[in-house]
Design brief:
Helix 3 (76-88) links the parallel strand 3 and strand 4 (93-96). The chain folds into 4 domains: 6-169 and 213-293, Alpha-Beta Barrel (TIM Barrel); 304-388, Beta Barrel (Thrombin, subunit H), CATH 2.40.10; 397-496, no CATH class; 521-693. It has an 8-stranded parallel β-barrel with strand order 1-2-3-4-5-6-7-11, surrounded by 5 helices. The longest helix is centred in the C-terminal third of the chain and has 45 residues, at 473-517. It is built from 16 helices and 36 strands. It has 695 residues and is an alpha/beta fold. Helix 1 (14-23) runs parallel beside helix 9 (242-261) and helix 3 runs antiparallel to helix 13 (473-517).
Length: 695
């Protein structure tokens, strides 16, 4: 195997981090605070995150932080503080969705590598090129791509590419789903997805789960994925428990290592043999057949199935399980269709017999014909963490270069580290002529390269020493201790000053953008197939509906397709070239990759679609600075605290349909009725749109 891929494991808690480490993960991705797409995960405190990162680095592993949600202007102070902390601990990368955050990192935190989240919906080489030019180090590709498409993108735009190989799948394109926002007021783009795609709908045959995807398992395709140019294999599951993560990481560790040791001839395994809760398929990697990828019979479940309820009386529940559960285990009780009945922590319980648990709940639970118990995580005190913390404290991560000068009466140390100023410290020293063995440069160097409890890593230590003198070792060690204490205090003070100055500069930059752009300029548009006769500034017509023979209208804006496969890209571009040549000048771009493409033309007006997510001032400046003149605020966030709602060039639809999801699958029906919504399907050349219809 030429390029052995990185095995990237989910760490939704310290427990799962330790489990993934023991199972052989090369790297871990985890959340910190509210700025990530898995707010329901346990996530990490700052201290835990630092310990995990230093422990991983000491053992040659890597840690990536998920900042893959949209950020509002009033949240940037907290985000900046977090980024400063991540910079301090030398994080290996951040995974992000927000274009404003991408701009901020490139300008103010250039040493933090940026990974483009799958929420950024990179699905062709045009998207990849934009991200590469924007400074992204790695791209997590959309999960809707085939093996051939992954290979074509990697060949066209050389970069690090990461793909999901195992875990839950979303029905909609990532970053293009408004289902949870519209139905429940909780946006998946803000880490609050309520998973309405796992709820029942009726298409005329009774209640089914037409949007519930089967899990992904690419265990049988390890060698093919490596050959396609993939740099990292990613396992989904920051909401999964430690046992699941351990088994899954161990499986892919064995497959990757097996393929490497045999030159790619091994590493194959049946797709259903990998651990999981829902029925698993190899996703879109070998095709996009709806019947193969969707489990419409049931919603599936989250967590690991461990048992079944045998009796329930009031708040007393008895379930049978062969698993050995400990106090603090998080359990979820669901009915036979996967609907959650209760979720809680196993605290007050007894073992009335072999394989039985008698669990006293905090409230009554509704009965169901069949009741299943799933293990979702742990809340108990974690036994491995003290050892992880101790080892993390031994890791040296601040590079330091020293110049030590010792003469008869004085010891001087000049220190340089990172990009901070040169520092010099001096101490009086008692010395005497050596009677037997004189102090040597090697002895002095050895003393000062021991950094005690401080995190300094001595990269270079130059010594200048007066010949033939003797100094008591105890005196030199005292100087060393005082030096590192003063050095660390000085480093902390400089870092705090630098971080405060940078934070002020960023917030001033945001304020400047806000002052220059807050004109509340609204331009109204209507969709050509939904005209109501009201006056609008622009008329949006979909690309696939264009009459090639008709001359362009002066108010017409051409809406480009949301999804364009790598194979379909040349034809779309050729058609656009023809439209421009016959006088079309206004185009609405649904994704950022088109920005680079339209730079070749003069006199083009670009309109930004809602999936560009210009929800903060930095995103606004980044996009308008790249030639987008008008922008649309995502319709699921009109009630959120978005600064750009009062910015110039905001497009407001006069009439529009509430589009819930976009999928590469071909839905078999055109209408689905649920408890809260009636859904219809619009078919496009390479994708389907699911939207809300009037009941």
């Amino acid at each position: 195997m030429k390029n052995k891929p990185e095995l990237l494991a989910p760490a939704g808690s310290p427990e799962t981090f330790a489990a993934a480490f023991k199972a052989g993960a090369d790297a871990f991705y985890m959340g910190a605070g509210d700025f990530n797409a898995r707010k329901r995960a346990r996530n990490f405190s700052r201290d835990e995150l630092k310990d995990a990162t230093l422990f991983a680095h000491r053992n040659g592993r890597r840690v990536y932080i998920t900042l893959n949600t949209l950020v509002f202007d009033d949240e940037f102070p907290g985000v900046i503080d977090l980024l400063s902390f991540l910079e301090e601990i030398r994080i290996d990368g951040v995974i992000l969705q927000d274009l404003g955050l991408l701009s901020l990192l490139g300008k103010h935190f250039p040493d933090i590598p940026v990974h483009a989240s799958t929420q950024l919906f990179c699905h062709n080489s045009q998207q990849a090129l934009y991200l590469k030019n924007a400074g992204v180090r790695r791209i997590i590709l959309a999960r809707e791509l085939s093996l051939d498409e992954i290979g074509a993108i990697a060949a066209a735009v050389p970069l690090e590419y990461e793909v999901f190989v195992h875990g839950a799948m979303c029905f909609s394109f990532s970053g293009c789903c408004l289902f949870s926002s519209y139905l429940h007021g909780d946006s998946g783009n803000r880490g609050r997805c309520r998973q309405p795609c796992r709820t029942p709908f009726d298409a005329g045959r009774g209640a089914e789960y037409p949007f519930s995807m089967k899990d992904l398992s690419a265990a049988s395709l390890v060698s093919e994925l490596v050959a396609s140019g993939v740099s990292a294999f990613k396992i989904e599951g920051r909401l999964r428990n430690a046992a699941y993560v351990s088994r899954t990481v161990a499986l892919y560790r064995a497959l990757i290592d097996g393929a490497a040791s045999t030159g790619g001839t091994r590493g194959r395994m049946g797709k259903r043999a990998a651990p999981g809760q829902r029925e698993a398929e190899d996703g879109y990697l070998r095709g996009r057949d709806y019947g193969r990828l969707v489990g419409a019979e049931r919603a599936g479940s989250s967590g690991e199935l461990i048992g079944e309820v045998v009796s329930i009386k009031g708040s007393q529940l008895v379930f049978a399980s062969e698993s050995e559960l400990a106090k603090g285990s998080r359990l979820r009780v669901v009915d036979g269709e996967g609907k959650m009945l209760h979720e809680g922590t196993l605290l007050d319980y007894a073992r009335p017999g072999a394989g039985l648990y008698e669990w006293k709940l905090t409230k009554r639970v509704p009965r169901a014909g069949r009741m299943l118990v799933h293990h979702t995580g742990e809340s108990r005190a974690f036994r491995d963490w003290p050892a992880i913390r101790r080892e993390a404290g031994l890791h040296k991560y601040i590079p330091l270069r020293l110049e030590i000068t010792l003469y008869a009466l004085e010891c001087t140390v000049v220190a340089r580290f990172d990009d901070f100023e040169r520092m010099q410290f001096s101490w009086p020293i008692d010395s005497e002529p050596a009677r037997t063995e004189a102090l040597s440069e090697a002895m002095l160097r050895e003393i000062f390269t021991r950094t005690d409890r401080y995190p300094f890593m001595i990269e270079e230590c130059r010594v200048r020493l007066a010949p033939g003198i003797f100094v008591h070792i105890g005196a030199l060690k005292a100087v060393r201790r005082d030096f590192f204490k003063r050095m660390y205090e000085r480093w902390e003070a400089l870092r705090v000053h630098r971080d405060a100055a940078r934070k002020t500069a960023i917030l001033n930059e945001i304020e400047t953008i806000r002052d220059a752009s807050s004109t509340d300029e609204r331009l109204y548009l209507e969709y050509a197939d939904m005209e109501r006769g009201e006056r609008a500034d622009f008329r949006v017509i979909e690309f696939e509906s264009i009459d090639a023979a008709a001359p362009p209208r002066p108010d017409e804006v051409i809406l480009l397709p949301l999804f364009v496969s790598e194979g379909g890209l040349p034809a779309i571009c050729k058609t656009i070239d023809g439209l421009v040549s016959r006088g079309c000048r206004r185009f609405m771009i649904p994704t950022y990759g088109w920005i680079e493409y339209f730079k070749r033309f003069d006199g083009i007006e670009l309109f930004g679609g809602p999936f560009l997510y210009m929800v903060n001032s930095l995103a606004y400046a980044a996009i308008t600075g790249n030639g987008v003149r008008y922008f649309t605020v995502s319709p699921d966030m009109h009630n959120e605290r978005i600064a750009t709602l009062s910015y110039r060039g905001r497009l407001v639809p006069r009439t529009f349909r509430r589009e819930f999801m976009a999928t590469r699958l071909r839905l078999p029906e055109d209408c689905y009725r649920g408890a809260k919504a009636l859904l219809r399907v619009a078919h496009h050349a390479e994708y389907d749109i699911v939207y809300e219809a009037d009941k």
